[in-house]
Amino acid sequence: MPGRKAGDDVGMTSDIALLTEDLTKFYGQRRGIEGLNLEVRAGEVMGFLGPNGAGKTTTIRLLLDFLRPSRGHATVLGLDPRRDKAALHRQIGYLPGELVFPGRDKADDLLHFFAAARGGVAWSQVTELAERLDLDLSRSVRTMSKGNKQKVGLVQAFMHRPAVLVLDEPTSGLDPLMQQEFLAMVRDASGAGQTVFMSSHVLAEVQQAADRVAIVRDGQLAAVERVESLGKRAVRAVEIHFDDPVDPTEFNVLPGVSDVVVSGPVLKCTVDGRIDPLIKAAARHEVVDMLSAEPDLEETFLSFYYHGEGAGDASRAGA
Amino acid sequence: MLPALVRKTWRDDRLALFGWAGGVAAFTAIYTSFYSQFQGAAELKQDALPQGMLDFLGIADMLSPAGYLQATIFSLVGPLLVLMCAITLTARTIARPEEDGGMELMLANPVSRAAFAWQRVASAGSALTAIAAIPGILLMIIVPWIGMDIPLSNVAAASAGLVALVWSFAGVAFLVGAATGKRAAVLAITGGLAVAAYMANAIGGMLDGWHWVRWLSPFHYFIGTDPLHTGWHPVELLALVLLGAATTTAGVIVFDRRDIGV
């Protein structure tokens, strides 16, 4: 993918943009996020995935110093979100999940305010972003549709070219064309060395833009994966048509193969991980046709991290 | 150059600010201009009301210029207007944007929590000061113009008291908003306190053995010294200013320590 950093797990650990150690937030008895240990490297795009209520927004609001941790701590660009708030926020672009703009300004005036509050931003950067997102700046933000408000939110997050972009559900409200444009903006930002930390419950957008994904569930980190390996581990549905009927026992002993159903010469199964063992076994017979559905992150997501509770939300999300 | 947030706050509140300023100005101008026509009627009105009611309303006599200004501008409706203005505008500094969510993007700018709170309170406070000063400024013009026989220095003292009264209650309103982030709490608690303070001053002046209650009431420090007759009382004014400063500072400290928008 363009803009993707080549560096893998080695050699970049000294350059951490965002770090949380045992980051925990309880609201009274209710758990927001618990024991979160996460590292995002400079220049990396990290997707932060999980169903609604998993603790994504709580984590983001802790990073922005709207919330104070019950335990543990976070650092952004090596700075403390609370103590160094003023200096840090100059280098953060933030898009809230619940986007509400202060006042009744036209988009133009509102963005002038953000520009001034951030110590001056070249106006060409604003108009460039607005053009890219096809946004009319002369309209009042209060009367805008959700999608257009989201565009204003994106413009204010990207306009000062911050070192770190923290985006909470950035594509919500955007139509598919604009979602693609947004993902291109993320890739450009990453290419320019900016770090992107974006939450989502939509796997597709993360798959397209992120280097790694952190998955949270019920307030706890379930996994951190490279997007590619998430793909490799994908569960796929495979259907093989043979010339003659086959024996299911020959296939359901294969590693990673399950749900084997044989009806005459047609074998249906799901494959978890490498497909090679199945291919080798099938090759002993005369194969007429073979269908393999694209690895679907949605299914991967479900099969590895959900199983039951929370699955409803995730399965709705990408649809 | 003023901080962007201060200019933004004024711009967002401009309709309310101009509305309140216009209302307070109209109220002052209309009441005061009626002074000469009112002279005959005042006697009737004063005779019609029992003394206890007059005391409660803070009306000493409506015949003298000082008594008239006291009865109209400085005793009930005037303070009520500017305090309503102070409480609702101060609720906009933190509580309202926190509730509606608009505060997040303002706080996401490179400014510390404390600086944010100070800038918000400075914007609202300066606007409130200007609005609370309107009666005084207009009286400086109207009193000599219609020939009311009262020293301008006394009018200035009472007007300064009105500003100081606004500061004290704006401070309380700010503290409640900074601590709770709830607009309803600001309106209910500060409004309730204002009513209680008014009652304490009024009742404390009427009932034997309850005089001490007045000392708890900001209204006493504002008007209990009878500035329209006796002029400046710097210690009492200072007490109001200190109340406002202390509550505002406490508000900033509390706001700096808590979670936002929970």
UniProtKB/TrEMBL annotation, chain B:
The keyword Kinase does not apply. It holds the Pfam family ABC2_membrane_2. GO terms for molecular function: ABC-type transporter activity. The chain crosses the membrane at residues 15-34, 68-89, 121-143, 155-177, 184-207, 237-255. Keywords: Membrane, Transmembrane, Transmembrane helix. The keyword Transmembrane applies. GO terms for cellular component: plasma membrane. This is ABC transporter permease. It comes from Micromonospora arida. The lineage of its organism: Bacteria, Bacillati, Actinomycetota, Actinomycetes, Micromonosporales.
